[in-house]
Amino acid sequence: MTDTDALALVVGGTGIAGRAVCQELVDQGRQVVSLSRRPPAAQAGVRNVRADLTDAGSVGAALAGLAPAHVFVTAWSRRPTEAENITVNSAMVRNVLDVTGPSARHVALLTGLKHYLGPFEAYAVGETRDTPFHEDEPRLPMPNFYYAQEDELWRAAERDGFAWSVHRSHSIIGHAVGNAMNMGMTLAVWASLCRAEGRPFVFPGNEVQWNGVTDVTDAGLLARQMIWAATAEGLPSQAYNTANGDVFRWRWMWPRVAELLDVEPEGYAVRPRPLEEQMVGKAGAWRALAERERLAEPDLDRVASPWHTDSDLNRPVECFTDMARSRSAGFTGYVGTLDSFAALFGRLRADRIIPE
């Protein structure tokens, strides 16, 4: 069996990262199965199976008869406390690997920069790592569901003998309706409301993020890195930071994003103005705009996640990553961040998620 004949399983294939991984696998001519809880949007070349990832029996039934050689775990479930995040998200990884571990040659796990910044309950406060973040930094001395997921991965790898990689992305810029962590779509939707109401596009973050250096992660680039790590010969099992390869300051990027979205930008001034404040009570306005413009999704909660964008743009510390590890190992992928935003906004218009 050649590598392109080997079955690839994408766990969380309906999400912002999972859909991109599915698409890249299809583009490479690979056999792809997507496992998710939600009913998926149609994606050519992808076989979809559904399961409750927190239920071992449900996962086992959904994957019965499948023997994936490559497993890409991109799913997670947000819970009210970090203790619950740890319990639920580690179980999801364990349930999948208990079934797929014996056939897997490689398992790629998506996590993120909370590895360096801390969990939601202590996000970017207290002890954090210095920028740029390096993969060999020790874990922070606090509970973190990313660490629990890694522990499950390592236990299964020791048991079943597969290779593994962990991919620590920054904010992912990509297309997925209903995703809980979707900065690009959130900004596009808010800008559409601002334009409809004749109001400025106000930066929602703090002064540190407005002036500090940062980066983000294009979903397509993330997919290519995960597949590279899964299929390249001779790579050690290790973690990789995953970002576009450029860095920027929001004071430079914000007016350019506003221009792409045809709104008047307004930068940081005096205090943060979070989206959760700016967007309160806007569900009706979005529904009316969607009806008027014949948009595909009238539910504001399905196309915007202001809490997540606010958390990223209000960190009290600078945030960007070092990419030397994957570059020196042979992954040289790069996406200009402004190009990433432009491509996303173009697709959102084509799919009638936002108006022309």
TrEMBL record:
<dbReference type="GO" id="GO:0016491">
    <property type="term" value="F:oxidoreductase activity"/>
</dbReference>
<keyword id="KW-0560">Oxidoreductase</keyword>
<feature type="domain" description="PRISE-like Rossmann-fold">
    <location>
        <begin position="70"/>
        <end position="355"/>
    </location>
</feature>
<dbReference type="InterPro" id="IPR036291">
    <property type="entry name" value="NAD(P)-bd_dom_sf"/>
</dbReference>
<dbReference type="InterPro" id="IPR055222">
    <property type="entry name" value="PRISE-like_Rossmann-fold"/>
</dbReference>
<protein>
    <submittedName>
        <fullName>SDR family oxidoreductase</fullName>
        <ecNumber>1.1.1.-</ecNumber>
    </submittedName>
</protein>
<dbReference type="Pfam" id="PF22917">
    <property type="entry name" value="PRISE"/>
</dbReference>
